[in-house]
Amino acid sequence: xxxxxILVARAVFPEVIARLEQHFEVEANQADDSWPKAELIARLQxxxxxxxxxxxxxxxxxxxxxxxxxxxxNMAVGYNNFDLDAMTAAxxxxxxxxxxxxxxxxxxxxxxLMATARRITESEHYLRAGRWTxxxxxxxxxxxxxxxxxxxxxxxxIGQGIAKRGAHGFGMKVIYHNRSRLDAALEAExxxxxxxxxxxxxxxxHVVLVLPYSPASHHTIGAAExxxxxxxxxxxxxxxxxIVDDAALAAALRDKRIAAAGxxxxxxxxxxxxxxxxxxxxxxxxxxxxxxxxxxxxxxSLAAANLIAFFNDKRPLTPLNTAxxxxx
Length: 328
Known about the structure:
12 strands
């Protein structure tokens, strides 16, 4: 019996490719080319499954052109690259890679918050440019983290991890807003209080965005929301591009209507809005919140495990559109 055929759409760890090759006939993109949609469709011809990353868009057009496709396993917790309704209609299973990146991403979110509040990127650029010639009392004076108010917008596992780091490690007062309120025990564990979105934006010294992207969350933070924040506040986005209106944020930073921002994700990435590149009071990183070697390996391994389990017994570990499994 021949092995199922799969496409690995971006470069991944060689040991993960070797594991997949034990179960599948594998076409792997170890050159790590970024394929346009037409190339992705061409590569998916005759494939039963795909190992995807957040940049590989699987939509109705791709699905219609690839009728043999049965599963797409995302090497990410987010899956806004998947049109889940279209995948379900086509009978194609979607899986993601949750949980394995929670603590690493929370670490990075807090690191980005600290770099933003304490103006680390600005000061390093200043030093590297040879402009540091003397000490002064207000040189790159930023804002405190300890004892301040942390606002977490989106209180899933990563948001809870950031809340715990703030409350337990830095003595921060933690407030949060979420689609649904946490139970009392979990709120106590995070030392977090539920507030409205408006109150969070008005009150927090540091706002961290950790909510999933969907059409409903597009531009959750725009000009109106930025206007609610304190002039001394900072904004950190480790969620998804599109949750923040990047043009509105750049204008608020330029006009010092908020103090600073830290961004790991962007609208239209890998492109970055040029206005963000023109302001100094923003820390910019290239979507690396989960980028520790152990965590990225765990993410790739989970995506591989989902593919293997699906073709072995139709029991993938982390399915998204489970209705598909009922009709397989």
